[in-house]
Please model this.
Amino acid sequence: MTDETDSSQQETHTQSIERLSTGVCGLDEILQGGLIPERSYLLRGEPGTGKTILGLHYLTTGIAQNEIPLFINLEETTEDIKQNAASLGFDLTDVHFLDLSPKSDFFAGDQGYDVFESGEVERDPLVEEITEQVTDLQPDRVFVDPITQLRYLSTDEYQFRKQALSFMRMLSEQGATVLFTTQATEDAPDEDLQFMSDGTIQLGYAATGRSISVPKFRGSPTESGGHSMEITSDGLVVYPELSPGKYDRSFVNEAISSGVPELDELLHGGLDRGTVTVLSGPTGVGKTTTGTQFMKEAAGRGERSVIYLFEESESTFMQRSEAINIPVHEMRERGTLSVEEIESLQVSPQEFANMVRHEVEEKDADIIMLDGIAGYKLGLQGEEDDLVTHLHALNRYLKNMGVTVILIDEVANITGEFQATNVGISYLADNIIFLRHLEVRGEMKKVIGVLKMRTSDFERTLRKFEITKHGITVGEPLTNLRGILSGTPQWTEDQNPDVSRE
Model:
């Protein structure tokens, strides 16, 4: 049996296992559908990482499915929990509570014990109360927050582990699926509870902001690695790490025209659908305009495009495009163009990938343009090397889905020695189109050329490039001009009439 067959059978088996939704779509995706019923799962994380909020999602989702949820609160009072939950929009009316939090009257009177340890006195009544509530209620979902409070009612670590394990087994035998939190400290770590649980969900922080991972999950594979998470006014939102190999969609292999005949001649018909193109050049040379020209032509075919602005404001882009006969306002109104300005340092790579997925899978985007790559690396949270990895995964996903990708890459040199790309992304590109400034007889001119096309042949000459109020103009091949890429252009004896008339 081949590895591919084994993988396929494992995936089929995973999909056939019944699941309970956590109430957080992104987390369910990481868990291949949700939690496996009648098992116990540990929520770990520092204070403030969102453990209790995740528990609220879990319980209230059960209500919507006609299940019985039980919140066993061992630290916060029920009143405080309900008040905090209401601020995030959670309705806990149908959630049952077993409030075992410390009461204020413990300090009001003489509640000390002279002979016995407090754990020896309090443990049995507490266990009785939990057992009675679970037996009477028969809950489907139980959230215990935090279970480590039981540690203080145990005489030693062995008794705590025995009691915690017995407690979780009792809940599972009653048909409940259990989610429980811990409060781990240096003096009282929670490694023992990690071994006892059927799965561990870790909440924390990373370079990209809040993070969530699932280092352990018995009985099913999960999406490995760290994933992005944020706490919003509506609770938790999880953005899974993009795994491009999971996605595939059939599409027609065809050339996409720019609508400028001479540019299409350079490309031998246009850009092949489902490829990644890098538009490279110095500032002001016309990279964004060239990319938008392909979107303009696509709009005429009824296709939808999305541009993500990392370096330019939306208003500037719209005004500049309209001034050169690219009707971006009309395209927007017709639904063939979406323009998204990405706020600097407020979006993780996973969240951005989720935004792109939404445009592709829910709104059928055909062309995606990122303007520009340097801004992507500066504007998104994370380490530089990781961001290139994320960009690579995003491009693979888009290619698998048949989406045509345009990446705008600004190089530092205005003139002089030729530079293909500026941030080491040429390996990502199926096609590289470059634009250059050059000085001809004391005037600044522009040229356009193609450096690379993986899937088809292309014209290996350079052409004059100009942006006018009527749009993009591309001239005839500059066959008599030498040394453009070296930065020192020179005419041969027969000057090219297309430029010499200027």
User: Anything to note?
Assistant: Confidence is low (pLDDT under 50) at residues 1-10, 106-122. The domain at 3-240 is CATH 3.40.50.300 (Rossmann fold). DSSP finds 16 helices and 22 strands in the chain.
